[in-house]
Amino acid sequence: MRNRPRVAIHKFSSCDGCQLAFLNLGEALLTAAELVEFVHFAEAGPVAPDEKVDIAFVEGSLSTPHELERIRQVRANSTYLVTIGACATSGGVQALRNMADAGQWVAGIYAQPQYIESLATVSPIAQHVPVDLELWGCPVTSRQIVAAIRALLFGVLPVEENDKVCLECKRRQQVCVMVSKGEPCMGPVTRTGCGALCPSFGRDCYGCFGPAENPNTTALSRRFAGLGLLPEQVAQRFLFINNAAPAFHAAGLKAREDSHD
Amino acid sequence: MTEPPFLFLPRECFQALLATLAGQGFHCKGPQLHDGSIVYAELAEASQLPRGVRDRQAPGEYRIETGADARCFAWANGAQGLKPYLFAPQEVLWQAERHADHTQFHETLPQARPIAFIGARACDLAALALQDAHFLQQDYVDPYYARRRENLFIVAVDCSHPAATCFCASTGDGPAASAGYDIALAELEEGYVARAGSARGQGVLEQLALDPASAAQQDSATRQHQQAVSAQTRRLPSRNLHDVLFAQLEHPRWEEVAERCLSCGNCTSVCPTCFCHHELEQPQLDGTRSDHVREWDSCFTQGHSYIHGIVVRSETKFRYRQWLTHKLGSWHEQYGRSGCVGCGRCLTWCPVGIDLTEEVAAICGDANE
């Protein structure tokens, strides 16, 4: 067999859910294994974290001093570094601690906090090493993974999907939950890619794919207030899974300021 | 030519209309209540119609109210009408297959079963005429659209309960259907005053062997129509706004509306005349085959104005301006009329309730007089 591109899947601070997008490929995973060589993929079996690879998929955020060292090694060992999911791409839900006193949390939760070695703040991968491609989502979908692998095998970067969820929601002809039910849907500022999953079940988008291009968070916050949300409730719509993504972070803090006015 | 006669279809005979259409091979689609909205879906039984249902619409808001009366078409519209049935939101245009020494292309024309669309509104028909003008232009016929269009049978229902967001009377497109249908109905308490608009429609009505509508029934339908006209409070100027809009490209209102606009594309997605789309490849993982896909796009996306590394309309004010100046201005040059049929969907389904008629009034000055 000809030389297949070598692939590693690395886990940092995360729930492992994004790696499932590989395992959930089903039959396509067998095709993928013929096209690339999974050198390191602990969740599936192969463990060789220090091997040089063509593509490193990185799940999780940087949350401990050890992870800061590891990511530099991963970067040095990889031709392409692709972040998968909200944690790796924007810091994830754990970045909420950046807005709190992390030490106090640890002390409040653990009986022996001296064994917990975590950084005071959480950061996305791109804050410490250069990233070639970011895939958003909590979790990413198998479709995104397939598109990324295929495009890289073709020698191009995949087309960036940065439209709003609304476009996909309307293509699927879902009834808008904000207009018909007054739900505080994040779709109008959130990046597409999920297939408008939540609205298709009649619930509001909670922004797990992060900010879309050109997001008007100010207008949406104002609309949420009009729907009856209190400023702190508006803040929590933005300060959730992608709370550290700059557009959502700023919108959340702005809403919080309003609650103190 | 004599006017087609007005016939009367008793309410309990609506099922016979569906059965006749089904008997002629049509797949009936009609309005139903789903997820808190009127949506068009497979309609096998008249009992699926939204009986007693009213819609209350305002900019950014759509609510359903249900009553006990027998009327099934006493609402204005839902987010979508005919458009998705002809201009598919997403479809494969062709497939490419890679072999060792050549690439093969496969046609993927839709296997469209003839559809009978029940409950089209006058605004939907006006929009259909515009979509036809776009997709079926002489030398550039879109075969996917054409395939679905060729066998479409339309049963229009005159609008008797326009929403607060409707302004079809001002654009000259409603509220009663005037062309483009096979059968048109005006719904009364006891049933429907029916008229044929084509030989096919005539044939279906003949098969139903209906009695003529009485003078009183015809009067009721006329009165109802007049009420539906006078109930509309919003309006767009009926004149050609091309010159006035293009003279206002630097109007401060563009900036102001951009502060409110989410640039989310809901307005263009629900607009029954918007036809913008993008195309993309969906290759199989093994790289041997690829679907070439077309899907609805919007002038409110970044990709819509992306050319070779540059986004021409990076800011929302330019995107909103593009939409409005095209829809109400340059459409006149392209299609001989404005692209707005007064259905009001872009007001209702805008999550932040931006009112097109208000924006036009602000930008064009006298417009909302």
UniProtKB/TrEMBL annotation, chain A:
This is Hydrogenase/sulfur reductase. SUPFAM superfamilies: HydA/Nqo6-like. The keyword Hydrolase does not apply. Residues 15-152 form the NADH:ubiquinone oxidoreductase-like 20kDa subunit domain. Its cofactor is [3Fe-4S] cluster. Pfam families: Oxidored_q6 (PF01058). It comes from Sulfuriferula multivorans. The keyword Iron applies. One of its GO terms (molecular function) is 3 iron, 4 sulfur cluster binding. Keywords: 3Fe-4S, Iron, Iron-sulfur, Metal-binding, Oxidoreductase.
TrEMBL record, chain B:
Pfam families: Fer4_22. Gene3D superfamilies: Alpha-helical ferredoxin. Transmembrane segments: none annotated. Residues 250-283, 331-359 form the 4Fe-4S ferredoxin-type domain. It comes from the Bacteria. Keywords: Iron, Iron-sulfur, Metal-binding. Residues 215-235 are annotated as: Disordered. One of its GO terms (molecular function) is metal ion binding. This is Ferredoxin. The lineage of its organism: Bacteria, Pseudomonadati, Pseudomonadota, Betaproteobacteria, Nitrosomonadales.
